[in-house]
Amino acid sequence: MDLMANTLLSAGASPAMLHTLEEIPDFTPLAHALCLNVGTLSAAWLPAMKLAADVAVRSGKPWVLDPVAAGASGFRLKACLELVELKPAVIRGNGSEIIALSKASVQPSKGVDSSHDSTDALEAAKALAQATGAIVAVSGAVDIVTDGNRVVGAHNGVAMLQKITATGCSVTALIAAFVAVDQSHTLEATAAALSVFGVASEIGMSMANGPASLRMHLIDSLHGLDENAVISRVKITSFCEEK
Amino acid sequence: MDLMANTLLSAGASPAMLHTLEEIPDFTPLAHALCLNVGTLSAAWLPAMKLAADVAVRSGKPWVLDPVAAGASGFRLKACLELVELKPAVIRGNGSEIIALSKASVQPSKGVDSSHDSTDALEAAKALAQATGAIVAVSGAVDIVTDGNRVVGAHNGVAMLQKITATGCSVTALIAAFVAVDQSHTLEATAAALSVFGVASEIGMSMANGPASLRMHLIDSLHGLDENAVISRVKITSFCEEK
Amino acid sequence: MDLMANTLLSAGASPAMLHTLEEIPDFTPLAHALCLNVGTLSAAWLPAMKLAADVAVRSGKPWVLDPVAAGASGFRLKACLELVELKPAVIRGNGSEIIALSKASVQPSKGVDSSHDSTDALEAAKALAQATGAIVAVSGAVDIVTDGNRVVGAHNGVAMLQKITATGCSVTALIAAFVAVDQSHTLEATAAALSVFGVASEIGMSMANGPASLRMHLIDSLHGLDENAVISRVKITSFCEEK
């Protein structure tokens, strides 16, 4: 939650972190977008998450789901599948998480780490997008974003991000901030957020000596990014546009 | 909570973070001061907060309230107003939070960010201090501290602190540590804590490249501060002393 | 939890952080080791902790207990004593925590900070190890590890680690990762984890300007450690081998 909040602040957004059912009706309509992350899910938090998703949709605000370790337990998978029903604008996970959601089945693994490459998850992502109407993003060596038909690849980023906890969660939060700006281009906003985070990590990596200094330089770089730095580095490709 | 604890450790204090009602009676009397922060408030935590405030007062220990986003929901405002009744020695918030408490009304805003300047909140702060007997501190471009009669301004600090999550929470925790040392000078201790944190941020800023490196240098600077560095940099002004 | 996870990632392990009773039966058997930390204990978490310990033991996986502030309240002491019954492979605490567990008595103190040196706790550690069958490690100026009979001292580390929150928690998590590799040498694995963390802190300290930069360099150094760096620096002594 700390890294997610600092990612959003560095990018110019204004995060607030809430857990409580009681304040969702007052608070959620004021937000421009909602991010739900099931990382440390507990049974008590789930009703608040569902209500927040519901209030966001009724308020015309997009919401983004991070189905952390969706396939790691039946409890977690069921919760994620219930959230998927509540019309997220974007779902972002690693390959294993997206496959678990798409197949609605528990995928034994080591937990939050993906045992699938993002390209392996392409068909699962397309199916999930078609079934839910959400944009689906799969993080990996190349990040993939799809609406179920179009598929784009976002190529920026560094491998060492996997050695820092919550970088996946943080890019999901950044997607929420980007999607808030223009709801008519959700796929583009999602790819842009992944790319901007990836570019910031590349700039950060050039100054880093390990995961902890990368974490620091990543946030500093995200704060200092200008349009030229992004444009000169960003690499987004179209995988296919037919169906 | 992480940044709050590291702030306290760097300043030479000894933090402990507790959530549970069951251990308040044993634990709270051992503390020299208590800090209650409603940042990620949940209904289940509120009884423990109230009991801790009560035990602190009965033990003759000062306690400090950080009414994070007090005006953002009816639930949160009600909780903060109930806590305010329990005799905090200090209340520290941003302008919007202090106005919400003083007017006992929800203030729609973006959440934890203040939409009011600290000077706008001056009258609200004085009224809140008079009504509660607490020292009230309002963070802003200039921090203001008042007992309802005297008003001092603490001028140290850097704008980039607003790009780091939990810096407000952390300075509130530091106020608790300062107030613990000498309960007969709570206004002075509060202004001193704000100033010391501000000076550490200024020294840190001279080495920082962005919010994340500022966060690191801030804590390092707080740990390394000596009396001369503080005295040569600190700027506290008296706004008015009449009433 | 953040520093614990980043410690494990930097050391090449794969952490997952769970709170919920409902997913323990699915998830815990997949882990190679379990770490239970009572830092911010709440009554609601305790049943999940107990079930996780039970599932780990039945799955033949080692589990490690960090009895944070065990002697600070009756509630916390009772919880820790109940966990100790569930066959931890390792218990790691500071002197005050180990004495509280060994004597099963509340030890008034300032909380998480030890008011006892690790050598003072030697007899308590040996008694606790004999009573429970666990390896017991006591952090201090010299870390002590015992099976109740053999005692070794791990001498690496720097004093400034005490100015960073969760470094004790993090070394306990690292012990869990080391113990997972070879369950037939739990004492050696525990001493090795303490030494490796200590060596990383020494290398980090040579680049640090204070607690926050030490925290960063510690994690970077842990990630970059090679066998030669460890072997050339590590200092483990045998205190006694008779009994």
TrEMBL record, chains A, B, C:
Keywords linked to the UniProt accession: ATP-binding, Kinase, Magnesium, Metal-binding, Nucleotide-binding, Thiamine biosynthesis, Transferase
Presence of keyword S-adenosyl-L-methionine: no
The protein's Enzyme Commission number: 2.7.1.50
Catalytic activity: 5-(2-hydroxyethyl)-4-methylthiazole + ATP = 4-methyl-5-(2-phosphooxyethyl)-thiazole + ADP + H(+)
Class of this enzyme: transferase
Source taxon at top rank: Eukaryota
Signal sequence region: none
Pathway where it operates: Cofactor biosynthesis; thiamine diphosphate biosynthesis; 4-methyl-5-(2-phosphoethyl)-thiazole from 5-(2-hydroxyethyl)-4-methylthiazole: step 1/1
InterPro entries in alphabetical order: Hyethyz_kinase (IPR000417), Ribokinase-like (IPR029056)
Gene Ontology terms for molecular function: ATP binding; hydroxyethylthiazole kinase activity; magnesium ion binding
Names of required cofactors: Mg(2+)
GO biological processes: thiamine biosynthetic process
Record protein name field: hydroxyethylthiazole kinase
Organism: Ficus carica (Common fig)
